[in-house]
Amino acid sequence: MSNFDVRRGARVCLCLVLLFVLLWGGWGLQPAATAAPTGGRYDESQVKAVFVYNLLHFVYWPSSFGAQEKSCRIVVLGSLQIAENLKVLTAGETFRGKRVSVELCRRITDVGECCILFVGSEFLPEMSVILRHIGNRPVLLVGEGDGFLSAGGMVNFVSRDRRVTLEINPEAARQVGITFNSRLLRLARIVKPSH
Amino acid sequence: MSTDFWKHLFLRLLVGGALLTLGLGLGAGFGVAAEPEEELNFLKQLTLEELVGVEVTSVSRGREKLSDAAAAIYVITAEDIRRGGFTSIPEALRLVPGLQVAHINANQWVISSRGGSAWFSNKLLVLMDGRQLYSPLFSGVYWDVQDTMLEDVERIEVIRGPGAALWGSNAVNGVINIVTRKAEATQGLLLSGGAGSLEKGFGAIRYGGRVGDSGWLRGYLKYFTRDNFDSYQEMPNRDDWHMARGGFRGDWQFSGADRFTLQGDVYSGECDGNVKIFDTDLMREEIHKNDSDLSGGNIIGRWHHETAAAGNLTLQIYYDRTLRDMPLNDETRDTWDIDLQHNLPPLGRHQVTWGVGFHCSHDDIDDCPELRFTPDSRTQYQTSAFVQDRISLFDDRLVVTMGSKFEHDNYSGFEIQPSLRLGWTPVEGQFFWASISRAVRTPSQADRDMSTQIAVFPTGPTLNNLLMEGRNDFDSEELLAYEAGWRASLGAAVAIDVATYYNVYHDLRCLVPGRVEPSWTTFPPPPTRKVPLEFDNRYDQDIYGVEVSANYVPVDWWRLSCSYSWIHIDLHSHDLYPGVDVAEGNSPDYTVTLRSYLDLPANFEFDTLFYYVDRLDNEYLDVSSYSRFDVRCGWHPRPDLELSFKVENLFESKHAEYGLIDLVPTKVPRSFYGKVTWTF
């Protein structure tokens, strides 16, 4: 046993225990309420997931795209929370008469046919591999983080002043035949390719 | 005004602040959390325009972002390593404010955080990809063998101040965490090589490829040979060194939630050097060669499992072997370690992380009369557990993190190392933090088992054999640290980080006269007696200081950084002999660094680094202040090719960075090298 000052140690421990009890008991584990969740703040991943869900209705894919597919797939690369939220949002939903399915992938090679690919921030350094894998298929590339658009992304979520804002690179999308609803474009910061 | 006064004032302010926060929290009441599904369904009904206006809480609740951590954190990025033109990990650490990095000779460094510097700075924990690099023999890091392919380093995270609540004992003054890239981020072939004045030649090759559908693998080989530094006070300067190293890393991402990593390295090399020791045959201090053959290897397996229901679970197992063949002592060490860490899914406002670990280290020491270890072989077992709770309050504006490490070691006993941290974000871009923590430095074998000859002197017909000896009851050294800091973005172009600390140390190592034992040997004559100086925990010390760093990006092709650190060391118990690691004046009072990264047309880069380090001055060390100016030019004629040229110490022919301890120091000369890197 080390000869550390028992009194000082006890005091520090007591303070910690007290604080712990107060924080746990007082606030932490309040039961879920029935009140409508208005006026509060939401988890960032929830808001992003709702944006991704809305993109289905404000983005136009080439009419021939995905004609053979049975479902409209949204693939989330890496981000577990976004995928879980999207699964809740799209449960039972259809898009152009097809069932909407959400899948979480951890590998770029698992990303098959899809209409939206959400690139989690941890995959940002591998955008070149992702772009090579997608080729010129009309897949809407959605991401989060600085440098996503300059790396070839199309829609980027930027957190600014405790709000999620949108950045769109319409040129990158146009090259594969994807266009955006003007209402969506009005809300977003438009990023033009630098070269 | 006495330091006690300030200490108490600081403590009271901190405790007062914590209580005030508690009171405010209880008084104000908190919003009631709703079910996630209900929240999502509500958000789903909003129009796009409404959605843009919704306020959100901070990013992932799972893993804390570094910029939100209530601690003095500095991150050296891969870009910093490349543009600094660093050829070794210790040199890159010079960028960190509050970290003292000094060459003793060409292959040995003094690296310490917030004071306590010595050849083996014993209060700094260093990890590479989760593997502890801290050696329990002298309680320090053998920096001469800590290396990897620098192009594969993703970042180096440096925490100044205690990290013991998570990492355990010896993370007293800081934690350095070297993180390499995932194998999938280093695909393809990379060739690099170069030569210069000190860097006589270096080269590296790395290849990364795929293994099946789900795996990536890379392997590397590197070699360098470095020249002697300049001699210090006419003493010999044989300190050239060379080392070869190879390694691999494989990452497998299995479907869904599982990820597996296997990585390892082997190395072998030779470091030359000189030590000043008391020669019992010649009866005087002599300079001896201390040429070392160093080799070793390690292998790490890591499994990571992540699901929404279970959170993140990481299991890591590693084995490390270190062989040091030196004239004074040979060390063979085997280390096994198993660690489990679990980030629970968020529970209300709580984010709980817990973990358990087992660490075993076995060594065999082959010693000589001048430096002896008794016993010469030891096995240390350490079991540990930690728990941490991160509580988000006021919509994440206030984050309270509390936790503790609990450790038991068959060598040093039981230790509790708690910490309490508060982080407060009053407005976006402004972050204040404060913390209180306890950390210990557990005894090393040198503290308990070592016996080393300092001198032999006669009194009458008897010879006195002056020894420095470890003591079996040497105990842990203790720190109680009070820290506070501020980080802010001032507009888009300026970021600033200020950290202050008040460290109160107890039971630090010092030397006390031991019992004189007559007639240690009486035959052959003359009679000799043992006059020992023994290690004891009788030293108290306060260290306080400030560290400031700032980044300024005036235009997107020019980045400027600067840092300043100031430290004050206050000793108590002046009547005792302190060890060199606690002496006043063994850390520079202040250090300044300035950095500029300039992107020029035609893919040229022009980078400059300036360091000013104040003098070291005490009974052991006498080192003048020095300025160092480094310049690097880089050119990318093609995207996959980089040519660079670097000059170190442009305006000074040579300077000493550390004084004479046991190891004979040398002076850092002006040097240059050129380098080519090709990726395809």
Q: In a few lines, what is going on in this structure?
A:
The complex is a heterodimer of chains A (195) and B (680). Chain A has 195 residues and is α/β, with parallel strands linked by helices.
Task: Characterise this structure.
The complex is a heterodimer of chains A (195) and B (680). By secondary structure, chain A is an alpha/beta fold. Chain A has one domain: Rossmann fold. Chain A is 35% helix and 24% strand. Chain A is built from six helices and eleven strands. Chain A has an eight-stranded mixed sheet. In chain A, strands 2-10 form a two-stranded antiparallel sheet. In chain A, strand 6, helix 4 and strand 7 form a beta-alpha-beta unit. Chain B has seven helices and 44 strands. Chain B is globular, with a radius of gyration of 26 Å. The chains are: A alpha/beta (195), B mainly beta (680). The interface between A and B is large, with 66 and 78 residues. Strand 1 of chain A pairs parallel with strand 1 of chain B.
- Gross CATH architecture of chain A: 3-Layer(aba) Sandwich
Q: From the coordinates shown, what is the CATH architecture of chain B?
A: Beta Barrel
Strand fraction of chain B equals over 45%
Instruction: State the low-pLDDT regions of chain A, or none.
Output: 25-39
Number of separate structural domains of chain A: 1
DSSP strand count of chain B: 44
- Structural class of chain A, please? alpha/beta
Mean pLDDT of chain B: 85
Order of strands in the sheet with the most strands of chain A? 4-5-3-6-7-8-9-11
Q: CATH first level of chain A: which class? A: Alpha Beta
CATH class of chain B: Mainly Beta
How many individual β-strands of chain A? 11
Radius of gyration of chain A: 22 Å
Q: Determine the number of helices of chain A (DSSP H or I, runs of at least 4 residues).
A: 6
| Biggest pleated-sheet summary of chain A | 8 strands, mixed
Q: What is the CA-CA span between the terminal residues of chain A?
A: 66 Å
Order of helices and strands of chain A: HEHEEHEEEHEEEHEHE
Identify the overall geometry of chain B: globular
Largest sheet of chain B: 22 strands, antiparallel, barrel
Helix content of chain A: 25-40%
